[in-house]
């Protein structure tokens, strides 16, 4: 995955925006003012991205893929850092980006979720 592909994948979601709160070298992708992905797109290879993750899934992914580790300078229970060196399948990386976005959107007020036309807002509730 190239930096351009990563940026496009992160910005593909409704309401997603790229910000630079930590300086021009670090892209922070947010929805509703909350971070869901962080990457130094112009940094030294290999490209890395930090993504929010369900804690149980985060542990399983780290065990399966050496390129996935606890979030660098982040809460390692809720964040993974993925080295995009080709060892993690692209489809999984895309799913992890979407999951990270969904975890953040799910925490937003209902009005914001509806404004984003988030599919999770329209799913039937479990009984």
Automatic annotation (TrEMBL):
Q: Is Oxidoreductase a UniProt keyword of this protein?
A: no
> Which PANTHER family does this chain map to?
CYTOPLASMIC PROTEIN, CYTOPLASMIC PROTEIN-RELATED
List the GO molecular function terms. Answer: DNA binding
The UniProt keywords, alphabetically, are: DNA-binding
Looking up SUPFAM superfamilies in the UniProt record yields:
YjbR-like (SSF142906)
In terms of Gene3D superfamilies, this protein maps to:
3.90.1150.30
What InterPro entries does the record point to? YjbR, YjbR-like_sf, YjbR/MT2646/Rv2570-like
Name by which UniProt lists this protein: MmcQ/YjbR family DNA-binding protein
User: What is the top-level taxon of the source organism?
Assistant: Bacteria
């Amino acid at each position: 995955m190239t930096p351009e592909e990563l940026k496009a994948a992160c910005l593909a979601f409704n309401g997603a925006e790229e910000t630079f709160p930590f300086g021009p070298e670090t892209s922070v992708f947010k929805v509703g003012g909350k971070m869901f992905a962080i990457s130094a797109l112009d940094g030294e290879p290999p490209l890395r991205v930090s993504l929010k993750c369900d804690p149980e899934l985060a542990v399983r992914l780290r065990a399966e893929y050496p390129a996935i580790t606890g979030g660098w300078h982040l809460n390692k229970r809720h964040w993974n850092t993925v080295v995009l060196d080709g060892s993690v399948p692209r489809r999984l990386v895309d799913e992890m980006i979407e999951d990270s976005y969904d975890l953040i959107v799910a925490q937003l007020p209902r009005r914001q979720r509806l404004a984003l036309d988030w599919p999770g807002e329209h799913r039937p509730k479990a009984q």
